[in-house]
What we know:
Layout: H1 9-27, H2 34-41, H3 45-48, H4 55-75, H5 83-99, H6 102-110, H7 117-144, H8 152-164, H9 166-169, H10 178-193
Amino acid sequence: MARTQGSHSGITGPRVREVALKLFAQHGYAAVSMRQIAREVGVQVGAIYNYTPDKQALLFSLLEGHMEELLAAWEAEPRPEAPQDRLEVFVRFHIRFNLARPQAIFISYMELRNLEPAHFAVIETLRKRYEAALEEILRDGQATGAFSVPDTRLASYALIAMLTGVNTWYREGGRLSIAEVADIYWDMVRKAVAAG
């Protein structure tokens, strides 16, 4: 297939990532070929390698980019002093951020198994940074007596799994708005960790 007239790296590079994300989410990493990605982008298959060394590097780039975006967005959130308020900020942030990126969330969980060990280690380190942010909030709440959880690390894993689970059922235009979902989940989280 001939190169799309007027295509260049500023447009084609991001398009390769966008198409790969969509195809990996729809069909799974293993089932998608570089030829399919090239066809959907509108370039010859050889041209794809101007934008990524191979399919593994493309998957890693998508997962790493997602985690870096998540961490940067979290760092930009307000940091109230009270642990209860910080936990509420975390809950609402996590739901809002994830629901805006359903394909990225899907491949971030479903395609980890397809990463080579060195790539997996990088993503795991980034994930642990995010989990640690929540665990720190829970520990601070334990210290002030605001929260009562038997194990802050386990609680952080459980809360993140619960919050991320919204992506499996939420559909835009459904019965509840994102804000209403966040209100309900915040109420459940607050009750789950509340002291006494």
